[in-house]
Design brief:
By secondary structure, this protein is mainly alpha-helical. The chain has a single domain, classed as Tetracycline Repressor, domain 2, CATH 1.10.357.
């Protein structure tokens, strides 16, 4: 990557860091481009060199949070195809999401944090990939053949994400809670004997390809207004 492009990418990330801090503190509705520029220590015009509006800036911020989640899941899959199994896959996603307040707000569609950005999450490419993952899990025997499977799994997982809002006795150790998620999914939704090794490997490869495509999509959306790309 040329040095100029590296500098612009680094500056874009600095702007996104500032936007993230402000959104979590004030909420999307109250943050202005002027606030972001001040927080990042740059001029307002510099922000507009990268993103043409407040909405495109903060959409890029959500994409960057999704990159962090996707990269970590992909890294685990590349280390072990067994990580594709739902109880392991969902455990990993749970722990990563709970550690990142922006990902957590996205998952819960938190209006206080996200404001109108909440609506942009519906029908996103990430949702399509998520649906494809669960379809493959059901088709290839990773999950039980049961009515309304997607709803059942989603309802169970949402409980794990929300429980600490209602029960102060929930363990603070996220790794422990992740293991509880894994046990719940395995005991409730997976067959006693899952797919063979060949199916595990081929499915992990297919999902990994989808995740890499998703990463490319996110990166393009984040840096699509990079000055280097627009003028070079």
């Amino acid at each position: 990557m040329p040095k100029a492009e590296v500098r612009n990418t680094d500056r874009a990330d600095r702007i996104l860091d500032a936007a993230a801090e402000l959104m979590l503190r004030l909420g999307y509705r109250k943050v202005t481009i002027e606030d972001v520029a001040r927080q990042a220590g740059i001029g307002k015009g510099t922000v507009y060199l990268h993103w043409r509006s407040k909405e495109t800036l903060f959409r890029a911020l959500l994409h960057r949070a999704s990159i962090a989640l996707t990269e970590q899941i992909l890294e685990r899959l590349e280390t072990s195809p067994e990580e594709i199994r739902p109880h392991r896959f969902l455990r990993t996603a749970f722990v990563i999401t709970m550690r990142d307040p922006i990902l957590h707000a996205m998952l819960l569609r938190d209006t206080e944090v996200l404001g109108d950005l909440r609506d942009s999450l519906t029908g996103s490419l990430e949702s399509v990939v998520n649906e494809r993952y669960f379809a493959l899990m059901a088709e290839r025997g990773f999950l039980l053949d049961m009515p309304h499977l997607s709803y059942a799994v989603s309802a169970s997982m949402l409980g794990h994400y929300l429980i600490d809002r209602f029960d102060p006795s929930v363990p603070s150790d996220l790794e422990l809670r992740g293991e509880i998620v894994a046990h719940t999914v395995r005991a409730s939704f997976e067959p006693a004997e899952g797919p063979d090794r060949a199916t595990v490997v081929s499915t992990a490869t297919e999902i990994s390809t989808m995740l890499r495509d998703l990463l490319a999509h996110y990166r393009e959306r984040i840096y699509s207004h990079d000055p280097t790309r627009e003028h070079g």
